[in-house]
Design brief:
- This protein has a two-stranded parallel sheet with strand order 1-2.
- The chain contains three helices and two strands; from the N terminus they run E-H-H-E-H.
- Helices cover 51% and strands 22% of the residues.
- The N and C termini lie far apart (40 Å).
- It has 89 residues and is α+β, with helices and mostly antiparallel strands.
- The longest helix has 19 residues.
């Protein structure tokens, strides 16, 4: 940042399969999601202070997605993970 502080920004999508899960994670007026976000931010900051970070900006987003799309995204993430980990000699 401009003031010389080291800040980590995390944008994370939370993908749910059903509308009832969406409502459960969001809570009334987004209160449950805010509590999850605040708690995770505190925990991350405790860990990252040792690495020199001064602040964590955590943005959580809940997305309702049909199961086929979730499976396709999971498959794509797994293949990317294996592609990164695979070594070619």
């Amino acid at each position: 940042t401009r003031d010389g502080k080291l800040v980590l920004r995390i944008d994370q999508d939370l993908i749910v399969k059903t509308r009832s899960h969406f409502k459960l994670v969001m809570g009334r007026g987004g209160m449950t999601l805010n509590r999850i976000e605040d708690s995770a931010k505190r925990d991350l900051l405790k860990i990252l202070k040792a690495e020199g970070y001064d602040n964590v900006i955590l943005n959580l987003h809940v997305k309702f997605t049909k199961s086929k799309q979730v499976n396709d995204e999971r498959r794509q993430l797994e293949s990317e993970r294996y592609g990164v980990m695979r070594k070619t000699f």
